[in-house]
Amino acid sequence: MLPAPESTRLVTIIAHVDHGKTTLADNLIESNGIISERLAGTLRYLDSDAEEQRRGITMRASAIGLRHVYNPPKMSSGSSSPQDMVVHMIDSPGHVDFAAEVTSSLLLCDSAILVVDAVEGICARTHSLLREAYLHQLVPVLVVNKVDRLCMDLGLDPSEAYVRIRELIESMNAVCASMLNSDVNDDTMEAVDGDVNANNDNDIDEKKASLWNFDPIKGNVVFASGLHGWGFTIPTLARSLFKSKTIPMKPPLLRQYLF
User: Fold this and answer.
1) Angle (nearest 5°) at CA 120 between 221 and 47
2) What is the mean pLDDT of the segment spanning 63-85?
3) Could you give the CA distance from residue 93 to residue 44 in angstroms, rounded to a whole number?
4) What average pLDDT score do residues 176-196 get?
5) Beta-carbon-side half-sphere exposure of residue 103 (alpha carbons within 13 Å)
6) pTM reported for the whole predicted model
7) Which segment of 49-63, 73-87, 93-107, 161-175 scores lowest on mean pLDDT?
């Protein structure tokens, strides 16, 4: 029996081609026991068309329903019991030739996961996907994928890998800020032309800027390796280190020092 509508989410995975969307989807599917852990990351389960498997790229958007147990943060008052959720996940194509499939998935969904290769960084398609998500009023969660390649392929030490990841996140925030400023300038010109006070929406603009700021400490950035099946956010890492007694520091304070 499916949960109530308020316990249902529609999520699409968007990214430039070959940044690891389908591999990441494999691992999420494996968490539901649909495919084996051994095959996750290489099976490309949602690439069900023979041509997709032959070419190694996603050509059509594919959807699957996954069960998830959501553990809300513990509050001083109110219930924080686990909630059964159903996440309808859509894996969309990354190639620009299949952009219509991405547009359809963004129209259908209420949230998005933006995957970026830690080595390749921001590509041309990443810019257009950010803009399209903004036009559809979807604030994506950023997944920095293939983090393992920084050490395995590029041979970076931990400090160099940290700098590389930080520069990537700062570049993403710069792209978002430029996009928001362009939109604000257009609105201001319309307000001036219409003889309307352009300062009335300052609070809304600040809230929007906060939403479109990727900050690992806030938990809207995931560091992952789709091929090897792991991923974490700074808040979850802080809780894990605290629970394992590796670092005896409260998670809200610890995460300030982790990135």
Assistant:
1) 80
2) 78
3) 13
4) 68
5) 7
6) 0.88
7) 73-87
